[in-house]
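ok trying this again, last paste got cut off
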Amino acid sequence: MAEKKKNYQIKPEDKVAFSQKWLYSLASLALIPGMQIIDRIALVVLNMGLGIGPVLSAVTMAVFRIWDAFTDPFFGNLSDNYRSKWGRRRPFIVLGGIICAITFPLLWMMSREWTPILTIIYFIGVGLAYYTALTIYSVPYFSLACEMTPDTHERTNVLGFRQIVINVVTVGMGWLLWFITLDCFSDELEGTRWLAGITSLLFLTFGIIPMLYVKEPFYAQAEKQERVPFWGSCKATLTNGVAMLLVTMMLLMTIAMQSVGTIGFYVSTYYVFGGDKSSAGLVAGYGGTAMMILSTVTIPLFTWLSRKLGKIPTLYICGASYLFATLSQWWLITPEHPYWQIISAALIGPAVTGTWLILPSMQTDVIDYDELKTGCRREGSYTAILGWIQKLGFSLAAILAGVILKVSGFEVALEGAQTADTLMRMRMLYVFFPIAMAGVMLLLVRFYPLNEQRCHEIRLELEKRRGELHGTKKVDGQNE
């Protein structure tokens, strides 16, 4: 037991400098709103605000994911093969951030007088430009997390810092629906335009400036390797069974958590508050804040559990917690006690945070496994393809949200006069659909082979082959 503890503790030279962890994480102040706002409120703005059908609104999101299927792998491979004095990733991050800041506000400049078809055409057209820019930014950004240290547990620590920032941002995300439905705005569209302007400023400040100072410790190793052909890289990624198992688990959890995210606002608005969107938005804000406060304070617990028990047992704990918290919503979301929704949100928050701390950390281990098989470090290609499949989950979730509304019998014209059968179907789908998805994910975890011992063995084999790599505490022989 003593020998095992010595082998797996984080070496001082593998640690990522405190300043580097925070500089890297601060970019999430821009990226997370840039990624989440559309998924969280597009259905509400297009459906409630502009009167476009829920299924058509949801299918629109699928167009972006189809586009991502081409742009994500392309720019992932491009950044893997790029060489410059500024590194492989940072030039793309700066360029993508600038374009995001320009295109995101344009996305919401449709006219209220347009027909539904013209509105959708405009939204898709500008959205394709925005999502291209977001790919240019996000794929290199997420790739950096895999390159900052070779230690499996220190990678979880880096992601823990990032998750803290994400949680802080997500507190604000919980108030989005409240913000865009404020009485000072004429409708949800006007509120969203103000929101888009704020997001643009975030990209120009926190999205770009911190990344100018983040180091790329693995760049010296990557610079020596031959450039990897695009199609060969895609094939190697898609035929990696461990990667595909992990991404299936991520896809299931994405669908579980996101498909009912928007539906929750409908349940709160029409079941709990009888059509009062403002009150539902206010409670969503309180619930989101409670969720993220509890989630943030439990991040050190999950990083500790990951080191103590391993990532796989920790993922089981998070998944079981998610099942319990989701089931509790059947009793906690009720018109008799509308503010019990805050308790529900607080319960589910740590489970969600823990899950999305561990799954991306497991992804970094898959990239080491791939290097052992192929001899190349392809963080960008893996991040792109695995990220696209996860974003596909967001689109499927958005489509499912529209389908759930349709199946439930919801009619926007009825507003607060929805039938009892509609509300019951909506509640049942809201609670039990994500439980089914998360349950399947937990069944798949037992087949994931990269436990702590195997990750350690892979690292030793890689170091015998190409030498040691270290974190930002020590780069090119110099301490930070």
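PB: full thing came through this time. The domain at 25-465 is CATH 1.20.1250.20 (Growth Hormone; Chain: A;).
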